[in-house]
Design brief:
globular; 3% strand; Citrate Synthase, domain 1; 3-stranded antiparallel beta sheet
């Protein structure tokens, strides 16, 4: 009897195509990123996060009427039910906001359960999509306020997503430059092919779990230290370095010991992340308005030294390298950096959820067993 040979084991499924997608394209060698075929540079310059979310999810740029209705619907669904706010208030104030966001997202699903066989038709999909994009910023802001002993700030219908989020965090009218930078940052983080959190969303979606569970699972994956949170660690690194003159010995020591330098290098990009280029340019505009920070000078020197030492190996700054500096200058607490990532990436997760349901196949990878065979059961009294 002929037996099939064992398939090659690929740790972490690295480089193994698991889906076909029309949503985003990445070329790591040329430093290209596009959403639905539109270069990220054009979207960052001319679009908004709300419009980009529509593009990712529905496949085309909206008409003027579609965008107006979309913005109105997103604004109308920002508020949380009082029971959801009570859940956020009951969470431990010392807990990480990502855990609060994951819990809050799952709770939302209990208030908006799917109904019947048509639960995932286009109308129900749209309702869930609107609620998730609209309410995630409110969840993050509500937890941030309540953990400090303050009441959550009600969202405003007259502000865009980025401006409203900044408003809910502080209760202060957001600076226009800071608000635009936040909006562009949301565009840049909205989608990036099949990364760990998106794959988690796809696996969950394939079981026909509801979209709130899908997003909650993706938030959980993003919370892991090897995925989200890199911009938090970049900020910690820059503070540890402390001054421009300490950059060179710091980088050399990291290289000599084989340790990772936060915010540089990427699994896909072998040149400078195009999103990092955009954020760096926007950071300069922000600092011209709000004043610069020594961390930016240290970051620039880190990039220069890394380019000299490791540039030929394709190790360059990624999107996380400058985003944390920008958020910090805007007064945003460090542990909110990854939740902001989730507020943005929910657009990509939902786009993949919709695409997965078009021709759904349950993910069921196999394994290569490397354990023992033929072991006998040993009675309890005879075990040593």
């Amino acid at each position: 009897m002929e037996t099939k040979s064992l398939k090659e084991y690929v740790p972490g499924l690295a480089g193994v195509p698991a889906v076909q997608s029309r949503i985003s394209y990445v070329d790591g060698f040329q430093g290209l990123l596009s959403y639905r075929g539109i270069p990220i540079e054009q979207l960052a310059e001319r679009s908004t996060f709300a419009e980009t979310a529509w593009l990712l999810i529905f496949g085309n740029l909206p008409t003027e009427a579609e965008l107006a209705r979309w913005n109105q619907e997103l604004a109308e669904h920002r508020k949380l039910k009082y029971q959801v706010r009570d859940v956020m208030k009951a969470l431990p104030e010392g807990g990480h906001p990502m855990k609060a966001l994951q819990a809050g997202t799952a709770v939302l699903g209990m208030f908006y359960p799917p109904e019947g066989e048509g639960a995932y038709d286009l109308a129900h999909q749209r309702e869930a999509i609107i609620r998730l994009i609209a309410k995630l910023p409110t969840l993050v802001a509500a937890f941030h306020r309540t953990r400090r002993g303050d009441d959550p700030i009600e969202p405003r219908d007259d502000l865009d997503i980025a401006s409203n989020f900044l408003w809910m965090l502080s209760g202060k009218e957001p600076d226009p430059v800071a608000a635009r930078l936040m909006d562009v940052s949301l565009i840049l983080h909205a989608e990036h092919s099949i990364n760990a959190s998106t794959f988690s969303a796809l696996v969950t979606a394939a079981t026909l779990a509801d979209p709130y569970t899908v997003v909650s699972s993706a938030v959980g994956a993003l919370a892991g230290s090897l995925h989200g949170g890199a911009n938090e660690r970049v900020l910690a690194m820059l503070r540890e370095i402390g001054s421009v003159d300490r950059v060179l010995p710091y980088v050399d020591q990291k290289i000599a010991s084989g340790a990772k330098i936060m915010g540089v290098g990427h699994r896909v990009y072998k040149t400078k992340d195009p999103r990092a280029k955009i954020l760096q340019q926007l950071a300069v505009r922000l600092f011209e308005t709000m004043g610069t920070t020594p961390l930016f000078d240290i970051a620039l020197e880190v990039e220069r030294v890394v380019a000299a030492r490791l540039g030929e190996k394709g190790i360059c700054p990624n999107v996380d390298f400058y985003s944390g500096i920008v958020y910090d200058r805007m007064g945003i607490p460090t542990d909110l950096f990854t939740p902001i990532f989730a507020i943005s990436r929910v657009a990509g997760w939902l786009a993949h959820w919709v695409e997965q349901l078009e021709d759904n196949k349950l993910f069921r990878p196999t394994q290569i067993y490397v354990g023992e065979q033929g072991r006998a059961y040993v009675p309890l009294a005879e075990r040593t």
